[in-house]
Amino acid sequence: MTKFSHVLALLVSLGSAHLHSRHDSYQSPIIGDPTLAINSVAPSTRTYWMRQANIALGAPCPFAAFGAVVVNHTVGGLGELVCSGANSNSKTGNPIMHGEMAAITNCSAILTDPKGKYKLTPAQALNAFADLTIYTNAESCPMCASAIRWAGFREYVYGTSIDTLITKGWGQIRISSLEVVSQSFDLSKPTRLLGGVLANETDQFFFWQFDPAHKCPEGCKRDESGGSSTCKAL
Ligand SMILES: [Zn+2]
Hints:
The chain is α/β, with parallel strands linked by helices. The chain is 38% helix and 16% strand. The protein is built from nine helices and seven strands. The protein has a five-stranded mixed β-sheet with strand order 2-1-3-4-5, with helices on both faces. The radius of gyration is 21 Å and the shape is globular. It starts with a helix and ends with a strand. Bound molecules: zinc ion (ZN). Residues 98, 100, 140-141, 143-144 line the site of zinc ion. Residues 98, 100, 140-141, 143-144 line the site of zinc ion (ZN).
């Protein structure tokens, strides 16, 4: 090896080491243990609201079982439900109506309703998100994770991970919420990210769609009558 090629090889190896460590920091799966009382909210309170995100679906086994609730924990105790949302792509024909987008849209309407509980101006409503927590039963796609960051939520809590969704057959855009949160540091309001909350329960809403051998969520049973296997409410 010539002196020049030796130096070149060293530079290449340093470059790849740098890229490798950068990649690791963006993709790190390390986030807070969901069983801890992070931000002084008890784990039992987190699981309560994650179950409400499942209930926000409005049915026991919709195919796109993505639900979300928005909660104000700054009032103490269990917190206060502000709004909820469920994936309504197929009902509305609107491809951006994921559970989180529906919840944010509903929250804005509720917060600014002149006859409602909050009666906020649009400017006040925009600021209000900094006091709110969004619970979604599955990790947000990058569109929704970005919307959560644009809103400036105080906390973003998810159940089932994107990796799990992909493993179970769901098409996903492979950008983790950790990466979206990591890359949004220029925004003025921080968002605390918590994942894996009640995942053992939220997973069941996403495991049956592409696996005919998997049992249906509670309140549903297999239906093979349409030529394909699906879960239908009892
Ligand atoms: Zn989404």
